[in-house]
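Notes continue from the previous slide.

Worked example: a multi-chain complex. Inputs as given:
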Amino acid sequence: MINRFGYTLKQSFRQINRNRAMALASTFAITAMMLILGLFFLLIINVNMTAESVKADYNTIEIWLQDKTAEPQIQTMMGTIKGWKDVTSVKFRSKEEALNILKQRWGDSGYLLDGLKKNPLPSSIIITVDNIEKSGPVATKAQNLKGIEGVKYYKDTVDKLIRITNGMQLAAIIIMIFLIVVSIVVVANTIKLTVFARSEEITIMKYVGATNWFIRGPFLVEGIMLGIISSLISVGLIGLIYSRIQAAIGTELVTILSAPLVPTSFMVWNLFWIFLALGISIGSWGSIVSMRKFLDT
Amino acid sequence: MIKFTHVTKSYKSNIGLDDVSIAINKGDFVFLVGPSGAGKSTFIKLILKEIDAETGSIQVNQKEVTKLTNRQVSAHRRNIGIVFQDFRLLPNKTVYDNVAFAMEITHQTKRSIRRQVPQVLSLMGISSKTDKYPDELSAGEQQRVAIARAIINKPTVLIADEPTGNLDPDTAWEIMRLLDMINQRGTTILMVTHAKDIVDRMNKRVVAIDKGKIIRDDYGAYGFSEVCIKSPEEKAIFNEAVGDRVKND
């Protein structure tokens, strides 16, 4: 058994060595494919992360109260809301708190608000729902409450965002599938060339009584090795590119979207396993597909 | 040993074999003759299970070839040595490696490979060529290497598909002498040939196929012909090779 494995391994190294140019070409091709694949992967993961954090941040509904609404009435209102389905928490925000939040948001220009004679902001009830998808019905119900000035929620905006991110993900996945298929075709063709070069040998092997797996083994290992090498190179490159991206625009992205980029180490480690599996399957598939015809008889 | 029972195989445009029944016994030396396209190759391909018969049964060593699975086919072929007209040696392997390769396929140990390959090469009279590559050898030497490769795994049947087709008459007789020797050691030999003079002078069993049917199956010569043996030297080689056997038969 060990003898057999040794033979297979030796043969596959010999084959790669004999067809160095082709092996190199297909390694480049798969690496390029994986590189693009990886960049799409980065994009998907980060878009997804952002979408999730936006969803988490905006699952609130604000009910603006009329100034004349009295304290006890507010209390009963809050009690009623608490009883509704899908509501996780209900909080009161006074006029003063609202002004403070606005001041904070304006930052350096916050002092401008100090000149106000009368606080123009209404007090409000902040409702948190467990899922942004549920905010629609809750908001509709809230609109029917008495003593309120208006209801504000973010569903439409977030819906738009989610539609966009979903679209991006779908497009990326389609492109990724195409790339994987292309990689398999590339490997299959490379190996087909090696097989062609050795078709005479294969015919003779078959006449002498070699089993299909004995013949296939070296080619399979060759494909797998090309896959592994390509995946290692592309993961390395992606790690490099990603850390550069983070260094260059990471901080700004954080402030714009209030969502951090996925850390490089986490990303690279995951990509490593995914690409390794992908490389091995592309390589083995490619070689099995390309050999099928030769092993028929 | 090899037994065809009502075997039929047809191709899209023509017939390969048409209801053929024949038995070849252990130790037989059989010439398979007939015009091109008569069904000789079909006959051989069926034995090797390179193609499948439509009807009928084919037995080799008491095993039903038509029912072999893909896995069993490789084991089946290890019992059959094969030699081709064009030698089919691997150009990038030495003589030694060309022969050793057939043993590697059957997962034999390095030690037994190192022991058996030189033995067979010496039997074929090409010990001095061990480290040469095929293109450094004459046609006759290449065919000897091919025969060495075919018999290294000790097959019970040796199929020779026009083994002398690319050789001059002298060399052809040398190869015939080797095949005869292998046959005397107990290996069944099935040789496809167009060489009438060889068939005539070997005086073995002759199976003639035409249009997919066996039209003749008996021992002896086709009808003596002097055409291919011209010089006294050739005659001497021939007599040395097969003279005794002819008397025995």
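Summary box: Chain B has a mean pLDDT of 87. The first strand of chain B starts at residue 2 and ends at 10.
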